[in-house]
Amino acid sequence: MAPGFDENVLVHGLQPVRVEIVEYDPAWPARFAGRAAGLRGVLGDRARLIEHVGSTSVPGLAAKPVIDIAVAVDDPDDEPAYLPDLLAAGYELRVREPRHRCLQGGDPGLRTNLHCYRPGDVEVRRYLAFRDRLRASAADRGRYAVVKRELAGRGEWADMNLYAEAKGPVVASILANAGWVDPR
């Protein structure tokens, strides 16, 4: 197990996966916009923020073909307030942590991960700082792409979360370049 990763938060347990990194697709922003519109239709005012995060939100960056979206809801732990509507819209709960839920959905060719947090949560601010740094720095974007491809080339991972955890050192370095100071 990777340090800091708790497999007990996985609703369906570990799911082995091979990570595929593909070249940037200029259609990804439009795909996000469609997903965001759908989420606004499902959640209405309960969605306090909907942001495209993750590698598909960074023009020119090679990525897993997955649209990552940060969604702010008043209280992610109050599942009856929003989760039934997301489940009915075709999303599946994958991760249940205090103050955070991750759901997956979308068509097989372009999966979507929803990361549900409170408005202003430190993790949302961290996602945005990381995304914005990658958008602004070709050097950091290139370093990140190299690490992602190297990790993807290692073969099967016991779970996607372990792959994400393995990127931790380069993510921390890029956040430091962005001036990020963890408030915890």
User: What is the level-2 CATH architecture name?
Assistant: 2-Layer Sandwich
Q: Sketch the topology as an H/E string, one letter per element.
A: EHEEHEEEHHEHH
**Number of continuous helical runs:** 6
The multimeric state of the shown protein is: single chain
Secondary-structure content class = alpha+beta
Q: If you compute it from the alpha carbons, what radius of gyration comes out, rounded to the nearest whole angstrom? A: 16 Å
Low-confidence parts lasting 5 or more residues at pLDDT below 50? none
Largest sheet: 5 strands, mixed
Number of domains: 1
Question: How would you describe what is shown here?
Answer:
The chain is α+β, with helices and mostly antiparallel strands. It has a single domain, classed as Beta Polymerase, domain 2 (2-Layer Sandwich). It is 38% helix and 21% strand. It has six helices and seven strands. A five-stranded mixed sheet has the order 2-3-6-5-4, with helices on both faces. A two-stranded antiparallel sheet has the order 1-7. It is globular. The two termini are 23 Å apart.
Write the layout of secondary structure elements.
Layout: E1 17-18, H1 28-43, E2 49-53, E3 66-72, H2 83-88, E4 92-97, E5 100-107, E6 110-117, H3 122-136, H4 138-152, E7 156-157, H5 160-166, H6 168-177
Helix pairs in contact: 3-4, 3-6, 4-6
